[in-house]
Design a protein that fits this description.
The chain contains four helices and no strands. By secondary structure, it is mainly α. The radius of gyration is 20 Å and the shape is elongated. It starts with a helix and ends with a helix.
């Protein structure tokens, strides 16, 4: 029982931290491509910041995607348990 609780807590922590790591990786790649194109490092970072600010209206939708994925995975893994609770014999 404790391992399931620990897995749940670790899963929530990973879900919370992973968007920051993904954003950092995307930032590094974006700035690298900007620098390959001839822009300076500061110009690449500034264009990335401008890109992030342009996505602000969509953040509520973008943050809901991982939550929906986790819920779908939990439902899929516990499908038999959920069905047994819904159908009473």
């Amino acid at each position: 029982m404790k391992s399931k609780i620990l897995k749940g807590i670790l899963g929530l922590a990973l879900l919370t931290i992973s968007p920051f790591f993904m954003l950092a990786i995307v930032c590094i790649l974006y700035v690298a491509f900007q620098m390959i194109g001839g822009a300076s490092f500061t110009a690449g970072v500034q264009t990335f910041i401008d890109l992030i600010y342009s996505l602000l209206p969509y953040f509520s939708y973008l943050t809901a995607i991982p939550v929906i994925m986790v819920i779908a995975i939990l439902i899929y893994k516990n499908k038999q348990f959920i069905l047994s609770k819904l159908t009473r014999h």
